[in-house]
Design brief:
single chain; about 15% helix; Pnp Oxidase, Chain A; 7-stranded antiparallel β-sheet; mainly beta; 3-stranded antiparallel β-sheet; binds flavin mononucleotide
């Protein structure tokens, strides 16, 4: 077998960095937040995942000090909205670099509902939304301890909303949800080939 091997600090030697294409599909955190001045904000983050089940923790990382990070620092709260296949166009549109004073939610005309627990709007059309209280914001470092311009934001889920049409017999209808994941480059994937594997028993 032949390998293309490289040390990331020296470059990858390919046309485009393969990192995100190989760590994929990544779930997309579609993060709503509110500024200290009360302006709502919405943006997608694919350096995002569930970090723990009990209690449920979610985390995402911001490359630089973006509006979501600034808002969450100021208010201690955010909401993760599941995009699903039906909302990918709006999800992508919400990534445009609007000024801090502009609400992507208002610009895109997205309907919202107020959070029950946190003072952050959630997207009414999202198949599910997770209201989160901030646990930690950590400026990431490399293995030598040098500070990076990347910030990991961790929130604890304090309230969950699921559209009932995605619940069948007490389980999430994952085929109907058609969760969307981020691949590399400009690519995305929607879940369409679902299979089950039983956990092994010793
Ligand atoms: C699917 C997708 C995933 C993204 N993931 C990230 C990410 O993980 N981290 C990041 O800093 N920016 C990411 N971006 C870019 C941000 O969404 C973009 O910079 C946005 O303007 C940030 O908005 P904010 O300043 O309102 O927080 C992503 C964009 C898209 C379309």
């Amino acid at each position: 077998m032949n390998f293309h091997s490289y040390n990331p600090q020296d470059g990858h030697g390919l046309k485009h960095n393969p990192f995100k294409a190989l760590i994929s599909p990544r779930p997309i955190g579609w993060i709503s937040s509110r500024s200290a001045e009360g302006i709502s904000n919405l943006a997608p983050y694919s350096f995002f995942n569930a970090l723990s089940e009990t209690p449920p923790l979610l985390g995402f990382s911001s490359s630089g000090r973006k509006d979501s990070l600034r808002n969450i620092e100021a208010t201690g709260a955010f909401v993760h909205n599941v995009a699903g296949h039906e909302l990918v166009t709006q999800m992508n549109a919400s990534s445009a670099p609007y000024d801090h004073e502009i609400s992507e939610i208002e610009m895109l005309g997205l309907a919202t509902l107020p959070g029950d627990v946190v003072d952050v709007p959630r997207l009414a059309e999202a198949p599910a939304s997770f209201e989160c209280k901030l646990v930690d914001i950590r400026q990431l470092e490399d293995h030598k301890g040098a500070k990076l311009q990347n910030y990991l934001i961790i929130g604890e889920v304090v309230r969950v909303h699921i559209q009932e049409r995605f619940i069948q017999d007490g389980m999430i209808d994952e085929a109907a949800l058609a969760a969307v994941g981020r691949l590399g480059y400009f690519n995305y994937a929607a879940v369409s080939d679902i299979f089950a594997l039983a956990r092994p028993k010793l």
